[in-house]
Amino acid sequence: MREDQIVLYMHAGSGNHGCEAIVNSLCRMLPRPAVLVTNRPEEDRRYSLEKLCAEIIPEKSIEGSFFVHAWYYAKRALLRDPECFMRYRYGAVSGKNVRKLNISIGGDNYCYDNMLDRLILSNRMFHHQGAKTVLFGCSIEPELLGRPEIAEDMRLYDAIVARESLTYQALLDAGIRENVFLCPDPAFLLETETLPLPKGWKEGKMLGLNVSPMIVDNEKKPGITMENYSALIGHVLEHTDLSVALIPHVVWASGDDRKPIRQLYEQFRDSGRVLCIPDACAPRLKGYISRCRMFIGARTHATIAAYSSCVPTLVVGYSVKARGIAKDLFGSWENYVLPVQTLEKKEDLTEAFLWLQKQEEAIRSRLTAEMPGYRERAREAGKLIRRLAE
In this structure, what are the phi and psi dihedrals at residue 148, rounded to the nearest 5 degrees? Predict the structure, then answer.
């Protein structure tokens, strides 16, 4: 491995096709092929990343062995060396193997409490070993930046690339300024791969739908999310000539979009107007999404695939990333994002769809006008990385 090799870390695996889309798009912007450190290498090879990366290296996990687990916990406690976990996990690219530039593929990693310790310790470890770090394409809940340990961690990065303006402004408001940049998510540059359309697909008359266990977990009223999706499909079948394409974007066992999708499909399969799109790599899923007339999605990168294809889109969101991206594209997130936490009655999603349907042509025109410049701003992140990699 070359000493000037760029390393991508904190990648969870391509079974989340949003993670795949970030790596796929970022790799095409880099000055040379990167090394990808991942905890699911078999997924990354199965989908679209193997030919784009110089090497795919599995993370080492202390949980895989009782003795390793016990040893590192003892070392952390007795020697007060919390970074030892990260030196083991990233041994192939740390210590004597450390590389000049390490990019934490940010996404919404900082939105999850169970990931904060690993993010902070890996950032600190790489810096102690003399490397540079970048937090790339991130969204961060503003209140999190009020925690001193998070603010300190942010200042340690050589660069933070926020993917939407709500996160960017929150960083500035927290006094983190010198190393902060605003560039759209790299997945706005994801290539589109089109396959033959499945039987039953009606050109110009498809509503794409994505639903995820993640938004179900964030609902305030139990069962309300699926009630809303069911009511929406019923309305579309009864009152429009549209058909529905159910499109998954994450297929991990712990959060498989295909589970709620299958539930909806079974409810409406006899209509003959509801299709299940099978799992595929991120560029191929974008190919299906790009040929929808309108799109309603829960997964961020499914909606980015739609936005970047100029498909009028409604986001069923749960966090800052959905609001921030919509605000940057349209000037406001209201009507463009339906927070799942606000669902109270089963008609809420249908009402939001009716607004989308009414504004369809105006939204398509807005996206068509905005997207060239938006995509060009996404490319600016690649220029920043090139400067840091020199």
Answer: -55, -40
Percent of the chain topping pLDDT 70: 94
The two structure tokens encoding residue 123: 């950032």
Reported for 160-163, long-range contacts at CB under 8 A and 24+ positions apart, including other chains, are 160/106, 160/134, 160/135, 161/106, 161/134, 161/135, 161/136, 161/137, 161/381, 161/384, 162/138, 163/106, 163/137, 163/138, 163/139, 163/321, 163/324, 163/325
The CATH homologous superfamily to which domain 206-373 belongs is Glycogen Phosphorylase B; (3.40.50.2000)
For 81, 268, 285, 323, 327, the CA distances from 343, given in Å and listed in that order, are 46, 22, 28, 16, 20
Domain regions of the chain by residue span: 6-182, 206-373
| Low-confidence stretches of the chain (pLDDT beneath 70) | 1-3, 62-80
Q: Does 206-373 match 6-182 at the fold level?
A: yes
Tell me the pLDDT tens digit for each residue of 252-274: 999 999 999 999 999 999 999 99
CB neighbours of residue 341 within 10 Å: 15
What residue ranges in 28-131 does DSSP mark as E strands?
35-38, 55-58, 101-107
What are the structure tokens assigned to 371, written together?
């997207």
HSE toward the beta carbon, residue 338, CA cutoff 13 A = 27
Separation CA 168–CA 162 (nearest Å): 6
Sign of CA dihedral 315, 328, 14, 145: negative
Contact present, 62 and 72 (Cβ < 8 Å): yes
- Are the CB atoms for 355 and 294 separated by under 8 Å? no
6-182: CATH architecture: 3-Layer(aba) Sandwich (3.40)
3-state SS, residue 324: helix
Shortest CA distance to 73 belongs to which of 33, 358, 263, 63? Answer: 63
pLDDT at 75: 62
Helical spans, DSSP H, in 269-359: 282-290, 300-308, 320-330, 348-358
Query: Cα(163)–Cα(185) distance, rounded to whole angstroms?
Result: 5
Rounded to whole angstroms, the Cα distance separating 186 from 384 reads 13
Model confidence, pTM: 0.94
Q: In this predicted model, what pLDDT tens digit does every residue of 297-331 receive, in sequence order?
A: 999 999 999 999 999 999 999 889 999 999 999 99
Cα 209 from Cα 213, distance rounded (Å) = 14
